[in-house]
Every structure is written in structure tokens, then in C-alpha cells.
Amino acid sequence: MWRLLLLLVCACRSILGIDEARVANDAAEIDAPDAALTCLGTGLVRACAPQPTATRNVTGLLTTDTECDVMLPQTSGPNLCVVTAVEMTVGDLRVIGSLPLVLFATNRLEVLGTLDVASYRQTSAGAGTDTTCNASSGTSTGTTQGAGGGAGAGYGGTGGNGGNGGNGAAAGAAGQAAHAIRVRGGCRGGIGGTATDSGGNGGQGGGAVYLIAGNAIVLAGTINASGAAGGIPGIADGGGAGGAGGLIGLDAPVVTVQTTARIFALGGGGASGGTPTTSGAPGNEATAPNIPAAAAGISGAGAGGAGSTRASPNGFSGGAGPNPGGGGGGGGGGGSGRIVTTATITDTTNFAPLPARL
């Protein structure tokens, strides 16, 4: 009943006399009488919701299209799925769906397990991955000659260029970095060009999660918003490119980072091109801040480019297919996503990319 009431509050703003959403200082915000709602957030989001009364432990699978306490509009961006509590602890939580997730605690928010909004080539996309932007595709040849690899997607860093096909087919040009003025996930990598079958699919961008707490955020576990790997191409086709990392937001007066924390939003790796006789190799995916998506190599075709690293926010370029030989070009690696914070974080050892102060 409480969740239904919250959804009705969001859906019936005009009936209740609550103004439509507006943007102030690049922040998504719903205006409302102070007595009606509790409002938090000083960064990219200012979220307002009826005062929570419960302590909440969030674990398992959460789908942002159907399991929100409040739906918060953004100007020039997707709606946000807001989950609220007074005190919130996050265990092992996988988040999917078309909308970015906002976790809203009026007092304290702790991440103890793995908060996973990353995208994966073989399973699913993370919540709020941006489906409105794609990096450029590799050039198709329409013959058995090697096609070009797709370009890596960009967000916090640029993607890597795709590799040219073995007989000169052009690769996709790298996706560029974008300023994070809204809560959204990363862009998708470019599709590989087709020679004989089909180029590899581009990896989905990482998802987006924004944490807001009235007093403190404590990070003891993992938050992963990395992009997916590029997909496998067919014979002589171009490799799919890696998706860009997504967005992680930390909005509280104090953000405490324990030594066990791992916070990362890295790009996915590009797939290799297909050889003249075999399909290519899939790209790889980041598994920790210091374990980025490695390059994918195969003899007779261009290697896939590695995804971004902590030291380099830009994805790496795919390799060209051998000439003569006609192998496909490798897909480019995805660029990093963004980690943003309203508080000073002194120990950023286990962050990738480095957090930016809002």
C-alpha cells in the first residue's frame, strides 16, 4: 500500500498542487511544499519524496521499470527510478531496466555487497544504459574481403577507433566523451562491418546509479557500472566494439570509503575481427578497478581494442586485419564512464575512473 501511495503521489502531481519538474543548476528536481516532501541532493539530482519511515535492506534483483517508490522526471534525460528509506543497506543487488536508479536515504546509506548496474555481452544490460547513442559502425564490403571494426563508445573518456579491414575497408571512428549533466548510462559500441555473414554487435553501455543520503554514504562493497564487451563477428567480418562505462553518483555531506570498496565504471573490450575462415573472438569485460577489459586477439584478424583503464580513461583502438589475407578489423574498446561526488574523497585507490567533484 505504501509503495502504491508513493507512485500515486508521483503520478498525480497536478492534482496535489505540486509543480511539474524543473531543472536548476543542472539538477533534476520536483518542486513541492516543504511540509509535503523530504528533498535531498546537491549534485546532479535533487530528489523529493514523502518522508520515509522504514529501514531497508536492498538485495536480489531490482527492475527499474516496475519497482520504484517514486518516478522522478529529468529534463533532457530519462525518468529516474527512486527507492527510498530512512536507513538503507545495499547487499548483493543486480539492477536492470530502462531507467537509471536513485537510492535515497534520509540518514545513512551503506553499500556492503555488490551493487551491479554493469552491462554484459552474454546476459543483460544494466539499468539506464543509454539507448539513444551509438558509436559508428565499421564499413561493410559485401565480399569475402575483411570488413572494418566498429568504434568504441565514449562517455567519461573517448572510445577507441575500430581497426580497418584486411583489404582496406574503413573502421568506425571513435565515440567522443560527453559531459555528465544528467543521470544516464553509457553509449553502445559500434557494430562491425559485414563481409560474409554479420559484423559483431556493439556492447551495451554501462548503467547508471545515483546514491543520495542526508548524512553519510559508506562504501564497503562494490559498485560496478562498466560497459559490455563487443560481440563475435562472422568470417572476415568486423569485430563489435565495447560499450562505454556508465555513471556512478555519490551525493552526501560525507562519503566514507573503506579499504574493501571497489568502485568502477570502465569500458568494455572490442571483439577481434573474423579471419578468412573462422569467426572472431569476443571482447572482454572489466571485473575490478585494476582489472580492465583486456584486448581480444586471434590469428588472421585484427585484435579487439582493450577497454579503458584507471590510468587511461580512453578506450584502445582495434587492430587492422592482415593484408593480404582479408581478415576483419578489430572493434575498438569502450571509454570510461563517470564517477561524480559532492563530497571530498581522499582515498581514491580503488576507483576507476577517478571521481570528479561536482
Distance between the termini: 37 Å
Binned strand content = 25-35%
| Class by SSE composition | mainly beta
Choose one word for the global shape.
elongated
The biggest beta sheet, please? 14 strands, mixed
Number of helices: 2
Q: How many DSSP E strands?
A: 18
What is the residue-mean pLDDT, rounded to a whole number? Answer: 89
* Rg (C-alpha, Å): 21 Å
Helix-strand sequence: HHEEEEEEEEEEEEEEEEEE
**Percent range for helical residues?**
under 10%
Low-confidence stretches: 1-35
Features:
27% strand; 358 residues; four-stranded mixed β-sheet; elongated; single chain; mainly beta; disordered N terminus; 2 helices; 14-stranded mixed β-sheet
Tell me about this structure.
- It is built from two helices and 18 strands.
- The protein is elongated, with a radius of gyration of 21 Å.
- The chain has helices at residues 2-11, 13-16; strands at residues 22-24, 27-29, 38-40, 45-49, 55-63, 70-74, 77-96, 101-111, 114-116, 208-213, 216-219, 222-224, 247-251, 254-257, 262-264, 338-341, 351-352, 356-357.
- With 358 residues, it is mainly beta.
- Mean pLDDT is 89; it is low at 1-35.
- 65% of the residues are buried.
- Strands 5, 6, 7, 8, 9, 10, 11, 12, 13, 14, 15, 16, 17 and 18 form a 14-stranded mixed β-sheet that branches. A four-stranded mixed β-sheet has the order 1-2-4-3, with no helix packed on it.
- The longest helix is centred in the N-terminal third of the chain and has 10 residues, at 2-11.
